[in-house]
Every structure is written in structure tokens, then in C-alpha cells.
Request: fold
Amino acid sequence: MSTAIADRAPASGPESIQTFTVTVIIRRFLPGIDLEPRWEDFDVEMLPTDRVLDALHKIKWEQDGSLTFRRSCAHGICGSDAMRINGRNRLACKTLIKDLDISKPIYIEAIKGLPLEKDLVVDMEPFFDSFREVQPFLIANSKPKEGKERVQSPEDRARFDDTTKCILCAACTSSCPIFWTDGQYFGPAAIVNAHRFIFDSRDESNVRLDILDDKEGVWRCRTTFNCTEACPRGIQVTQAIAEVKQAILRGKP
Amino acid sequence: MSDKTAGTLAPHRSRTKVPEGTLYRGREGMWSWVLHRITGVAIFFFLLVHILDTALIRVSPEAYNAVISTYQNPVMGVGEVGLVGAIGFHALNGIRIVLIDFWQVGTKYHRLMFYTVLALWLVLMAGFVPRHLMNVFGEYWVG
Amino acid sequence: MSLTIENPRAPRTRRSPGGVNWEKWGWVYMRVSGVILVVLIFGHLFVNLIVGEGVKAIDFAFVGGKYANPFWRIWDFAMLWLALIHGANGMRHLVNDYAANEKLRKLLLLALGGSTAVLLVLGSLVIFTFDPCPANSPADLLPSFCS
Amino acid sequence: MPTESDSTVVDGVHYHQFDVVIVGAGGAGMRAAIEAGPKVKTAVISKLYPTRSHTGAAQGGMAAALANVEEDSWEWHTFDTVKGGDYLVDQDAAEILAKEAIEAVIDLENMGLPFNRTPDGKIDQRRFGGHTAEHGKSPVRRACYAADRTGHMILQTLYQNCVKFGINFFNEYYVLDLVMTPVTASDGTTSDKPSGVVAYDLATGEIHVFQAKAVIFATGGFGKIYKTTSNAHTLTGDGVGIIWRKGLPLEDMEFFQFHPTGLAGLGILLSEAARGEGAILRNSEGERFMERYAPTIKDLAPRDIVARCMATEIREGRGGGPNKDYVYLDITHLDPAVIDAKLPDITEFARTYLGVEPYTEPVPVLPTAHYAMGGIPTNVNAEVLSDNTTVVPGLYAAGECACVSVHGSNRLGTNSLLDINVFGKRAGNNAAAYALTVDMPPLPPNAADWVINLVESARASNGTERLSAIRKELQDSMDRNAQVFRTDETLNEVTRVIENLRERYKNIGVQDKGKRFNTDLLEAIELGFLLDLAEVVVYSALSRKESRGGHFREDYPTRDDANYLVHTMAYLTGDAHSADAGDHIRLDTKPVVITNYQPMERKY
Ligand SMILES: Cc1cc2nc3c(=O)[nH]c(=O)nc-3n(C[C@H](O)[C@H](O)[C@H](O)COP(=O)(O)OP(=O)(O)OC[C@H]3O[C@@H](n4cnc5c(N)ncnc54)[C@H](O)[C@@H]3O)c2cc1C
Ligand code: HEM
Ligand code: SF4
Ligand code: F3S
Ligand code: FES
Reply:
């Protein structure tokens, strides 16, 4: 027989830990079949260490192949699977079953404010449009020395560290009550990504301040903090927005 | 910038409606905003009426007193408690918002500040309500 | 909370360069006026509802008495403008947020602006043209200093 | 700028024309796009939104001998790469990699990448496994990094620059076929030239043909042939599979890297950067066991060695936990402030997924399938080869899907982020230059037919087999039989399993019959690629009766340079659907390019 190490069950293997049944209620919408979204229940056997994404996979792979959701990395770094879990925006792959109250069903639905395409999938284009609109790239006219990096002190680098963590998952923007109203607001994610460049000492442009100093820009934020609570990367989103507001008032970063 | 992606902006994507889902379970930040909005609107409509009724002093003392005396009945008295409650919350929370916006660590302590707002609001109401109700209902109690 | 966004991020109109930046100054105004209003409104409420017999004491004579003093005229005048513009700007946010239909939105904004302007003028007139001792009025309704 | 109006629709199939089409929007694809985009009409087609690509998962760093913090040279870097790859590296390519590394890092910095900085404001560097000074004397700080999300920052920076240049993206389009047109040259010989790709639009279920002068494949790895893997669910090796099905060869497929420190039971990666910052591997007795195996560089030995040592410790009964089946990664002696500044993400993974607090407890880890050293053979210009030397004109590959053979039999940590940048850039440049010199190749008639047929037969399939069950059996068996340790016996076992699964695959059922966002259908197609590639991996592994780098044969535990200092080239021939792998896979060899470094015993 094989001598490979994986022969033995891993520590968290099913033998050692009790499984239990969880009811998952998913807001389904199959285009062409459903006229309106509807709630559908599934019962799945789960381990406490499983994630909500595992539950969705189990349903898709064992019960209903038509269940549709996005996912890729499965550990919270690609930003594919933001969804509303028990009324809050979360990444399915970062939400452990044991952290939810499993005596009650788990409600899962698509994020709000973007056009629903199918089940848990929404059209992300409007979201990326506003990201692209803040000119999220380094703008610097001065040339660094040929073949050399631009110099930046560790303090200057730390200034915008928080907002470089963004994975563009849209959990924040689609949790914002202002974005829900008409979807015209740039939304926290775009502002976070503008912040990342506004406060980068290497960047020489004020254009983003100008873009966000507008009707649908930072002034629409009502500091509801939903974005900060939703961000799976722990970015202090509302803080970043506040800093951009101050920068606009000052006229410079 | 025109970097619209050719493929993904294709107009053939039908735009389906966003379904009605569960109520978003926001926390202190969201609920304080909801309250701030509701109280703001309530105060605004009160203010409209209040300006009009005060304008009656320009008409005649009789007219003004006639209208104002309706404020003095117990039902309106209770309404005034609501009004002051709304203004109190809106004002205290307004200060909280200003602190979030302008105080370096405001965003860090926003939750703490929300509970402070609630506490101060309770103190305010505790000071105002008995006193006010005594004034309003005073004649019944006395008489 | 079921809101349909037909077309999030449809191409938006940008502020014309050089024009007044209403959004920014509106935002600043909300905060500045708010802080001042705390003093004005709480002072107002305190004097009218708490001091003395509270709300029961309010009548023509009471108001007339206050307005005889220019201090209170200026107080109320400031309060009128700050609060009404603050409130109207706040209502403008709400209309912009929730009125999805462009025509309806325009209509509501017009109504809001119109009523605010009318009330500002009316209120200001009342405060500054007010006569605490109108002729032909029964003396017992007037402030004591009229006689 | 091209828009949707450039495309035409014939019989429900959309046709587009571009000079260069890049398949894959990971690091390699977007690096290529940044070169090609401003020069010629370029499209990037990706099955994921660009920022979802798995380059974003890379944590540790990107190697370049900048010598910002201590003395270093690209020549030492070349040597380390060659030695790390157990001398199966093509040394001319490794030299290019190490030399152009410096420019690649500077390019990224100038594009805006926020590297961590030294006190005097230069790009900071950290230690990484197998990177040494003076040909193995001592570990050297060569890896440029941005906290422990270097890959994330690379992916974001490249996407940001694509936005800046207005690159055309076709997101959530699955490329399923490469179109080849037979062209008769002036001397009368006929050869197949690439003329585009065929893609399936996930949103609508429609088929799009992208006609192009040059095609670049940058579709990443295929770790999903294994169960325990650091790779994303979407890394199913579609690009490599497409090339394979076209009859083009695949190189060195038996070499798969198992990263020592995956979270036990899950496979989520804890970067080698942890060990670069001083983390220590311990067995259940608390012993720092790497001291015994690699006295000089200890925990920073190359991955194949560390993974094997860990497995040995576990086998000899010194594993931790109730089943004694993992070892520990210990960072408790590091200052929490350092951990927070340099390793924030991976400590959070341990907390979230295992409930372990890395400040105070050692983290259970196990080797996890991580990186495919093999793939589509290319030369140093990123041109795809149809045999040992012949270039397929207009076809390029870069990144993990390609095998320039800079990694040989074992890739050094931080050399892959380097690979995607150096060879991604070369691919983009060369494809653009090529596209400027040729006319648009004609499409063959019915270019989309094969894909339409593939998709429609998958959609129509009503068999009884669940694809998830087949996939699971494949992955389980690969983990059991073709992982860190391999023998004839285990490889034969998994061969039989794959044969059986390929049979069962013909009888799968796809439940979702819809057109829009039909991920069920695509998972079925992806499984097809996984089965094909697993078969090639195992078949190649069986043929290599020696141990080298990531390929360790217990029945042939030593390196055998006399017989096996060659690359393995696998070709699909005959009936692709025949049961026996031997009936449709032909193996050949390709010499290794050796310039400066003669093979030596590999000791650390
Ligand atoms: C967890 C982890 C950590 C790592 N850490 C490091 C590190 O510290 N240093 C280092 O040097 N290397 C590291 N690596 C390795 C390195 O990150 C990868 O090898 C490298 O990022 C691969 O890049 P790529 O561009 O080739 O592919 P990917 O980034 O995987 O991109 C593949 C692209 O192809 C697209 N695609 C795939 N199939 C299709 C299809 N059919 N049609 C259309 N598009 C398709 C995908 O959408 C995606 O955009 C790490 C890898 C992992 C998994
Ligand atoms: C007592 C002192 C007051 C303070 C400190 C105060 C403060 C504020 C602040 C800071 C805001 C901005 C909220 C934001 O942008 O998120 C605001 C909004 C608002 N205020 Fe006031 N305010 C006061 C009195 C009033 C009065 C008297 C009215 C009514 C006339 C009013 C009506 C509103 C309305 C309608 C809003 C908009 C709410 C929203 O957009 O969500 N406020 N207030
Ligand atoms: S800020 Fe946070 S929540 Fe928003 S998109 Fe970025 S990672 Fe997601
Ligand atoms: S949720 Fe929205 S209102 Fe502001 S604080 Fe966040 S953007
Ligand atoms: S699957 Fe990548 S973030 Fe969840």
C-alpha cells in the first residue's frame, strides 16, 4: 500500500469531530425560470470548522448543481464571494459555521445594490466602473533615476498601508445605505482605492481629490460605518473616507 | 478615462431587479444614522409649522394666542416631549458626527460616542420631561 | 428596504469647473450651523419651556416681551436662517437619495426651495416688523410695557 | 479604442479581431498586456475578474539581487536557482531570470507598487528558502516584498496600470480552444499556425471567437489535481489542457512542488516568508528538526527538501496532534510587533481557519500542493515549442502555465513572481513585435465548432455520475499516491484510478441546463482538463525512475544524472479517449541547457 503521508486522516478529519446539520436558506434567482427571487432551504451536514463556502459547495456538488455563486481562492484574498450572510456582508470563505448561530437557519443572499444576475451572482461592472473612475494608478511626472526605485521612507509607506489591502470584493460598497439608494455614489471601495494613491508620497496628482469632491463623491458618505464593519480585510474604511474629506478641505493630502 | 471594457459592458445583459432581501443588520453606525435622518425630517416639518404659527404674532394677538393655546393642551404637551427628544438626539448625535469628521480618533471611538449620546440624551430627557409635564399637567394636579 | 437600482453608476453629470461647489460647502455648512444651532435651539427651548411656567407661559405677551429686546430678535433671526437652511439642505439630501424619478425629484426640490425661501422671508419680516403693542388690541393680551 | 461594435455576430457566434490576444489576467497575463497594449490592439481574456487571479494569493516576495540590504549579485541568484531546481534548470534561462529580475522589480516599483522600505527609503528585502550568498555560504536577503501580500500588490499594481493604459478586458470569458489554421508556406510545406482562441462567455453562455495574430497563454497552474493545495478552486489548468489537446507537447509535468507549510487539513498557505523572518519548524518533541537535515541553512532549505523532511518526521512518529500527522511552525519567539508588520495576513489565516493564536502557539502545518514546475514548453523568448526546438510562430506562453525551465525540478520561493514578470514582459513585447510584422491569419471554417460541440454536449449530458464525486476521487488519489513520496506502486495505483475516472467522466450529468452563469457546466469542462493533466503528471512521473527536486521516488531515492538529466516531453498522440495512457501519451526527452554550473550533489 501507499506510504505517502496523506494516508492518515488530517487532524481536523471527520472522525475526530462531530458533524451536525445546518439549514441554509438561500435567496435563489434563476434567470429565465424565476420571475422574482425566492428563498429555498437546504439541509447540509457540516463540521464546525467548515466555512459558509463549504456549505455552498456541498449544496452545489451534492444537491443542486444549478446553485450559482462566485469563488476562487477560498481563503479571503481574491474577493470573489462577498455575499449577505445572516443580514451582513461577509466573504463566504472567511465565515466559519461555528461563528454563526447554528440553532437557527443561515440566510444567504446576494449583495445589495448591484443588478442581480443569478442566485448569488451580481453584475460587478458598475462597481469596477467607479473604481476605474478614480484613476487608481500612480501618477508621477518626475522620473526616478534610471534603473532605480523612487525613494520612500518607511513612515511615508506606512501612511497608506491600510488601504493597500483592498481586494475589491465590494462588501463595503454594497453594504452602504447611501449606495443602495441610487447606486450613483462612488462608494467606499472607490474612495479607499483613491486614498491609497492620495496618501502615497510618490504620487503627484490632485486629480482624485477633484473627482471625489463632487455630487457623488465623499460628501455623500453619512458615516454609517457599515463599510468598515463589512470589510473582510479589516480596512478602516470610514477613517479613510474621513481622511479624504479632510484632504479635500485642505486642498492637498 | 475611457477604459470601458468592451466585453463586459455589452448591452445584452438584461438588468434584473434587485430583490427584496433581509433587513441589513448594520450596527450602531447605521442605526444612529437612521435615527438622525428620521429626527431631522421630523424637526424640519415641525419647523415649517412653527414658523407659520409664530408668524401669527404679526396678524393679531388674538390669533396668535388662539393657536398657541392649542399647544398648551396635554396632547400637544406630550408631543412636545417627542419634539424635544428628537431635537435632543439629533443635536447630540450631530455633535458626534462632527467629532467623527474632524477629530483624529473620532472614527475609532464612534461606537463609544454613540452610547455617550444615548446617555446624555437620557440625562437631558430626565431633566426636561418631569419639569415639562409638571408645567403642562400642573393645573390638573393643582386644581 | 427594498430599493431597485435600475442602473447603478449610469454616466453621471460632473460639476462644471469653476462653479460653486455646493456639495462641499453644504457639507461644511451642516456641521458649522449644527454646532451653532445647539446653542441657539437649546437656549430657545430652555427659555420657552423650562424657565418660569414653561410652555404654559407662552402667549402673545410673552413673545412680545422677548422681541422688545433686540438680543432675542437677533437670536431668533439667526436661528431661523441657520435652522431652516440646515433643514432644507438635509431634506435635499433625502430627496436626492430617494426620489428615483428625475421629474419627481426636480419637482420636490423646487417645492422645497420655494417653501424655504418663502418661509425665510416671512419669518424675517415677522421678526423685524413686529410691533409688540399693536393698536386696537385688548391691553390684557399685550406685554406689560405697552400700557 | 476598440469597442463592442468591432465584433460581428454570425450564426450566434461573436467574432472579434485583435493583434494580440492574451489568455489569463494573472500576473503574467497583465504584465504582457502592459507591454503589448500600448503598441498593438490587445485583448485580455480571463475567466476571472483580473484582481481575482491567484497571483493575488502570493505572499512572500519576489527575488531580485538588488543588494539593497546586503551584498548580492545576479550571478549568485542564477546559481541558487539552478541548484534549487536540482540542475534540471535551463541555465541560459535562469541567467536571464536573475539578470532581468532587477529591472522587473524596479519596473513594478515605478508603476506604483508599495514595497516595504529600508530606513533609508529603498526597497526592503528579506530572506527566503534556498537564496544564498556566495554560492551557498549563507542565507541572503534577496526577496523584495510588500508585507505578506506581495502577490496581491503585484496583481493590483498591474491591473491599475492596465486601467491606466485602457487595456481591453473580457472578464469571465472561459477560453476553451486554441484555433489553428493550416498554412502552406512558400516552400510548399503545410503547418498549423495559431489564428485565435474560442471563448465561452459565462454571463450569457454565448461563444466568442477572438481572431488574432498572436496569442499568449498565461492561465496559471493546475493545483486542483490535488486535494490538499494552496491553489484556488479555479486553477484547473485549462490553458495547459488546451495546448495538450492541440497535440503540442508538455514539459516536465512530473515535477510538482509541495510547499512545506500549508495549514494542516486545509492546505491554505503560510508563506515561507515566515521562516524568512525567523520562524522555526518543530516536531512533536519540540525539536528544530531541520538542523539535522540541512545544518547550514536549516529551515530555509529549498521546499522539496523541507517538505520531505517534514514527511519523514511524521512517518517516524514525531508528528503532533491526536493523529501525529502534522508538524509545527513556531513563531512564538518573534516580537508581536514584527509579526504584525511583516506577517499580518498569514497569522490571521491561522487564527481564522485553525483557531490557533500564532503569537503564543505553534501552528500545525503540512505540505500542500503548490506549484507546477512543468507546463507548456517555451524558449527564453516565451515562444511556445512544438518539439524540442521548433517554435510555433505567434504562440506564446508565460507564467505558471509555461515551462521555460527556470525552475527545473523545484522552484525556489519568490522565483515565480519573478518569472511572471520577466517572461510576461518578454511574451508581451515579443508578441506585439511579431504582430506588427504579419497579416491577420485567416480563421479556418467553423472555427467555433469544436467548442460549441464541447459545451452543448456537456450541457446535454444526463449521465448518472456526479462530477464532484469524480473530482474528489481524483484529488484524493493524487494526494495519496502522487504527492511528496512516490513509488511505482502508488503511481500505478493512481493511473488505474484515473483510467477508471476518465471512463466514468463520459457518463456525467450536468444539472444546470441554463445559458446564463452556468458554472455547473464549466466545472464539468474544467474536470475534463484536470483528468487529462493528472494523467500526464502521473505518466511522466512513472517514467522518471530517479529522485530529483519535487519528484521523490522512494524506490529510486537518488538522483541519476547519467540517465535522467533531461527534460520530459509528453505528447498526445493517437486516440485521446483510449483507456490506457500508454496508448495516447508518447514521452520524449529534451536536453537540459548547462552553461556554467556542472551538476553537483545538492547539500545545504
Ligand atoms: C498561496 C500561494 C503563494 C505563493 N507565494 C509566492 C511567493 O511568495 N513568491 C513567488 O514568487 N511565487 C509565489 N507563488 C506562486 C505564484 O504566485 C504563481 O505561480 C503565479 O502567481 C502564477 O501567475 P500566473 O499569472 O501564471 O497565473 P494566475 O495568477 O493564476 O492567473 C491565471 C489567469 O488565467 C486565467 N485563466 C485560467 N484559465 C482560463 C481560461 N480557460 N480562460 C480564460 N482565462 C483563464 C485566470 O482567470 C487568471 O486570470 C504562490 C502561489 C500560491 C498559490
Ligand atoms: C440642534 C442642533 C443640530 C445639530 C448639531 C445638527 C447637526 C446635523 C448634522 C451634523 C447633520 C449632517 C449629517 C450628515 O451629513 O451625516 C445634520 C443633518 C440634518 N439635520 Fe441637523 N442638526 C441640528 C438641528 C437641526 C434642525 C433644527 C433641523 C430641522 C430643521 C435639522 C434637520 C436636519 C436634516 C433634515 C438633516 C439631514 C439628515 C441626513 O441627510 O441624513 N437639524 N444635522
Ligand atoms: S475596502 Fe474592504 S470591503 Fe471594500 S472592496 Fe476593499 S476589501 Fe472589500
Ligand atoms: S457605509 Fe456608506 S455612508 Fe459612509 S461610512 Fe461607509 S460609505
Ligand atoms: S473565494 Fe476568494 S475571497 Fe472568498
